[in-house]
Design a protein that fits this description.
The structure is a homodimer. Chain A is an alpha+beta fold. Chain A has two domains: 21-312, BirA Bifunctional Protein, domain 2 (2-Layer Sandwich), CATH 3.30.930.10; 327-416, Rossmann fold (3-Layer(aba) Sandwich), CATH 3.40.50.800. Chain A has helices at residues 21-28, 44-63, 77-82, 112-119, 168-189, 241-247, 271-276, 299-309, 336-351, 365-375, 385-390, 408-416; strands at residues 32-36, 39-42, 67-68, 74-75, 95-98, 104-107, 131-140, 155-165, 195-201, 208-215, 221-226, 231-234, 255-269, 279-281, 287-289, 291-297, 311-312, 315-316, 327-331, 356-359, 379-383, 393-397, 403-406. A five-stranded mixed β-barrel of chain A has the order 9-10-13-11-12. Chain A has a five-stranded mixed beta sheet with strand order 20-19-21-22-23, sandwiched between helices. In chain A, strands 4-6-5 form a three-stranded antiparallel beta sheet. In chain A, helix 1 (21-28) packs across helix 8 (299-309). At the A-B interface, strand 1, strand 2, helix 2, strand 3 and strand 4 of A face strand 1, strand 2, helix 2, strand 3 and strand 4 of B.
Chain lengths: 418, 418
């Protein structure tokens, strides 16, 4: 893409009311726009990175048998009353609204209820199980505070998968499989080394659940890590003896850290299926409640955590897997020769399947380099009179700062062979 | 995809409260689920077709220079007050909600205001223009009635593009280009033959605008068509003499038809840029308001219109370009030989890039054929003992009913060479 067509501009300063590092950086680099506290829009660069994260999650969910659907945001109170989650005393994060008739509706903060209700039309026999259904869908949560940038917002897309199986045994099997898939997601987006499967409270659904926590100074959670076993325990259950029996961890080998929840997996059991009447007939013709689990990841929160962790004083340092582009082609000068060379480079890379942001703007070299560092695309390639006369192009890795000089064929080889 | 993994079931009957043909069909075929009046969720088959329509629109918007972004649904009242569209007396389709603090927010029914406000940070000079920004984003509209199934819903994804240019001349140029792109979209999704560019009222923005109207008995609009010129006039402006001068059409050569609006393009002029202070400096350093236009298409409405128009008494008849799968592979019997052959066929087609829904269920042949007709995938291929003994497979076109018998290599050739 030509940078002249990308309408966004980088900024020297983030809005004065923005206190979180991730939002400050993502706003300055032109990835997101702040609409109001806890509400952000995605600009073209931000949307590209967001979509890359979505694609990685989708691939891993499909790999464990997930089938994608898309539920509505507007919620019918009837199904939520059946599980006693409609009243604001029970759930304080509802955003509610009204039809013109005056009838109240909700904006989904999660989707257990409508999906369980929907499945009554499709699940009736053991032969219909298992079902693993997931979506990327907007959740609305009326958060009291919104000071963590894109880590906690009032409106965000969530990947939520719900598993419907016959019994606890089948559930445990899928639960472990999905936990492994989550591990792969965090690995692929670049958070593998800092993310721990964390034993935590089960909230209102079950005694315990698992979170995936990424170690991060600005995180809202405190966890206790066993780094050899790559496991952790959330502070909520740190003093609970049963946890140590269940996990085999020892209190004295744990180290404390601040962390951000980047994913969670819950055993729901039959709480929703019983309340909403989702049953199946087993081989003997007996009616049984369907056993359920839920599994969430917020792609924009991953983006925010990566912004917190993978940046330096110059700006973002995106991992290749989720960078908005692979190459930032920086053209210096606009004389005919340089222009022609930049165009050729752009075409050659693009047809080799490399995604390129081509800085064809009129800005000065210093501004272009500062912008390029701020945006944080993994590889910068400079086309200038100097590179023309040498027949080699300066290639700078954003991550390491390493510089190499490569001819166009060498570059293509470098970018397509790894 | 194996049909046994697709959890949805077809239904003999749609919900009794569903009066529209498109929703009845799409529910029966397992494409959508009705949450409540005017609110539908997308099941896996429906989501696939929806995404295909989105892809076609995205390609055509990119082709005219569109850059994709994604704005929030939650709306800050401040920007809407500046254009006098916050009060419910002015806009009766708002859904509003509240923060815990009691502060009111809106749910976007369109996005002129926030995008114009956002652009103030990116547009300041004539060098920053033009900008064509678009999104696929959920709109919420508090419709009084919701009886047209997916043609008019209270929550729906819309492709809305907004153009920001220097003056009316530049606007008219892009407006025409975008109208042509819309023509291509309707052509590609299979509505080309029935869709007319239609002169209509400009609403609150300008005197006139253009709609794209698809002729359809169940449509809410009435249009007057000149079929030679492929143009039409909306009833709203049918008696307005100026329209005939502007279009060169003659009242006596027009024929009346019911139609559904499948797209619209508006000249917004400087209404929003002046109210919100979106200006640019021209070559002389003078401050000018940016000239705007907006361009909308609802992918689910297209899906609904296609369901109304491209179906028969057996079910859906999807055009190839937006069908959820290209081939419905129907396996009859589950003896080892048939099973093996079906698997081989599935692999061969899939690796040739053909998307296949493989009916590997235990249903009887009659049920499978009825399901297949209802779902409406363009080509049905039957694998059975009969096909094995003949070495040829029965291939039935859903559209024409034409039957051919082809060997596997012939099939692959047939499916990949056109």
């Amino acid at each position: 893409m030509r940078q002249s067509e990308l309408f966004t501009k980088t900024r020297r300063e983030a809005p004065s009311d923005e206190v979180s590092k991730n939002a400050q950086l993502l706003i300055r680099a032109g990835f997101v726009h702040k609409e109001m506290a806890g509400v952000y829009s995605f600009l073209p660069l931000g949307l590209r990175t967001f979509e890359r994260i979505v694609t990685i999650i989708r691939e891993e969910m499909n790999a464990v048998g997930g089938v994608e659907l898309y539920l509505s945001a507007l919620q019918n109170p009837e199904v939520w009353k059946k599980t006693d989650r409609w009243s604001e005393e029970k759930v304080d994060s509802w955003f509610k609204t009204k039809l013109r008739s005056g009838a109240e509706l909700g904006l989904g903060f999660t989707h257990e209820e409508p999906l369980t209700a929907l499945m009554r039309e499709h699940i009736s026999s053991y032969k219909d199980l298992p079902v693993y259904a997931y979506q990327f869908q907007t959740k609305f949560r009326n958060e009291e505070r919104a000071k963590s940038g894109l880590m906690r917002t009032r409106e965000f897309v969530m990947k939520d998968l719900y598993s419907f199986v016959r019994d606890e045994k089948a559930h445990v099997e899928f639960y472990e499989k999905c936990a492994d898939a989550y591990g792969k997601v965090f690995e692929r987006v670049g958070l593998g080394a800092v993310t721990y499967k964390t034993f935590s409270s089960g909230g209102s659904f079950s005694k315990y659940s698992h979170e995936f926590q990424a170690v991060c100074e600005t995180g809202e959670d405190t966890i206790y890590i066993d780094s050899d076993k790559k496991l952790a325990i959330n502070k909520e259950v740190y003093d609970d003896k049963e946890v140590y029996e269940a996990t085999g961890l020892h209190k004295d080998s744990l180290t404390e850290a601040k962390a951000v929840e980047v994913g969670n997996i819950f055993t729901l059991g039959t709480r929703f299926s019983e309340a909403l009447g989702l049953k199946y007939k087993n081989e003997k013709g007996e009616e049984m409640p369907v056993f359920m689990g839920s599994y969430g990841i917020g792609p924009a929160r991953l983006m925010a955590v990566i912004a917190e962790l993978m940046s330096d004083n110059k700006g973002m340092v995106w991992p290749e897997s989720i960078a908005p582009f692979r190459v930032h082609l920086v053209q210096l000068g606009d004389d005919a020769e340089v222009q022609k060379e930049a165009e050729e480079m752009y075409r050659a890379l693009t047809s080799a399947g490399v995604e390129v942001l081509w800085d064809d703007t009129e800005h000065r070299a210093g501004e272009k380099f500062a912008d390029s560092d701020l945006i944080g695309i993994p590889l910068r390639i400079v086309v200038s009179q100097k590179s023309l006369s040498e027949g080699k192009f300066e290639c700078v890795e954003r991550h390491s700062g390493t510089t190499a000089h490569r001819s166009l064929p060498e570059l293509i080889g470098h970018l397509t062979n790894d």
